[in-house]
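Milestone 3.1: sequence recovery, worked example.
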């Protein structure tokens, strides 16, 4: 497999008026093309910090990030960041417009994605006409519109109720695989991580350090919903649960 991202000795300290907060400490990992990698860890351990640094929202304090030439990263925003006064299509075109890339060709690509992933009838409707699952797909298509190689998902499903979340994990997973994207997902939901990932990076409590990395090998890898019934699923759950509660 092709290594497309290399993160070495990444550290971050936040400085506030009162104090210095060490969020993450010396984190190193590689990402290979086509992988689905999850980062799990206790609340406040620095998971979002890692993603925010990767997509240049904040500066790192130390370390190095190297991405293979020509590859790019996009951050999937939450579905509730869809603009209510813009149509589904216009919402999905926002990223392209900002980058000045809203050519006819790119617009056709977005319409193709909307059609392929069940939003064809909603192209000219507004987000309030969409179900929770459709909004999530719309948010994903908005991210895919700029043709990123690596997608970052931060607790993307956490605002949804359990049932919807299971179905959407399946949807999102299928779309990411279908479009041959690489994904790095942050979640506090261990089941979600195990059911979707090739690899899970477990962080310690703050300052987040890498505690363990698991290669997830299920007996019969399938869709995220089915993976939850796999014999190996509960084994990984027990092991990682222990790591998280040590
Ligand atoms: P997680 O996503 O794992 O819950 P975060 O990366 O959001 O954790 O935060 C890690 C730590 O850094 C937390 O203690 C948080 O309060 C702190 N933190 C996050 N953002 C800032 C900021 N902008 N300024 C100061 N402290 C911050
Ligand atoms: Mg977070």
């Amino acid at each position: 497999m092709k290594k497309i991202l290399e993160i070495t000795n990444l550290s971050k300290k936040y400085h506030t008026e009162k104090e210095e907060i060490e969020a993450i400490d010396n984190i190193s990992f590689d990402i290979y093309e086509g992988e689905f990698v999850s980062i799990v860890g206790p609340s406040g351990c620095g998971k979002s910090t890692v993603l925010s640094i990767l997509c240049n929202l904040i500066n790192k304090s130390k370390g190095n990030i190297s991405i293979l030439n020509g590859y790019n990263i996009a951050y999937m925003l939450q579905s509730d960041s869809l603009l209510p006064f813009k149509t589904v299509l216009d919402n999905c075109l926002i990223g392209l417009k900002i980058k000045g890339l809203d050519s006819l060709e790119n617009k056709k690509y977005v319409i193709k994605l909307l059609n392929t992933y069940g939003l064809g009838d909603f192209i000219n409707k507004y987000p309030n006409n969409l179900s929770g699952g459709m909004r999530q797909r719309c948010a994903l298509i908005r991210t895919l519109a700029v043709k990123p190689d690596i997608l970052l998902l931060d607790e993307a499903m956490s605002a949804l109720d359990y049932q919807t979340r299971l179905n959407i994990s399946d949807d999102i997973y299928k779309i990411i695989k279908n479009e041959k994207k690489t994904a790095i997902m942050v979640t506090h939901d261990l089941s979600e991580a195990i059911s979707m990932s090739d690899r899970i990076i477990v962080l310690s409590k703050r300052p987040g350090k890498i505690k363990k990395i698991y290669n997830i090998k299920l007996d019969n890898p399938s869709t995220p919903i089915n993976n939850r019934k796999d014999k190996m699923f509960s084994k990984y759950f027990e092991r990682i649960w222990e790591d998280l509660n040590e």
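The longest helix spans residues 162-178. Residues 93 and 107 are 7 Å apart (CA to CA).
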